[in-house]
Amino acid sequence: MSDMNAFRDAVTAWAAGGPGDPARELAGRLSVRTVVLLEGLSDAAAVGALAARHGRDMAREGVCVLPMGGAMNVGRFSALLGPRGLGLRLTGLCDEREHGYYAHGWERAGAGSDGVFVCAADLEDELIRALGVDRVTELVREQGDFRALSTFLRQPAQRSRAPEQQLRRFLGTKKGRKIHYGRVLVEALGQERPPAPLDGLLSAL
Q1: Of 21, 41, 51, 58, whose CB has the highest number of CB atoms within 10 Å?
Q2: What's the CA dihedral at 22, 38, 58, 195 to 10 degrees?
Q3: Rounded Cα–Cα distance for residues 71 and 40 (Å)
Q4: Which portions of the chain are predicted below pLDDT 70?
Q5: What is the C-alpha to C-alpha distance for residues 95 and 97, in angstroms, rounded to an integer?
């Protein structure tokens, strides 16, 4: 396990009611300066893939990418890590419907209002629109999931939805699929500019 993973685990345990000393010790030893608070593992996969595309090593730069297991946990994590806790700089990426949790968490942590980058629906929606339906469908085929997608699209509930919405819902139908495609979609961007929230987040780090 890398040291930054150990810090991430220590913070998660602290947020769950465990001791804070391990996180404090690791933050100092690793010179952690910034924490990226994300809703879940698929967002972390996408951020990690984009950082790798730009040749950046987040851990070496003192940046911890931390999936919280849901946006409602942001208040607890930001309080522990922000200016009124460990004194680290906070950044984050969230869905539009979850922005209120982040705004409230930032305020309680004394972090001001900067550093939160908001996706219109969610990050998968942003990436699907950036790549286009045809390219995402091609990627699904390349990943061996086209038969599952075809079966999904035959469901009556999907027939009235736009293709972008269908793909977005498909990515959430199987455990681990969103995490896998968070990386795949970012790596497929090629010359396309990353979605504005993701691009803004990386630029701010």
Answers
A1: 51
A2: 180
A3: 8
A4: 1
A5: 5
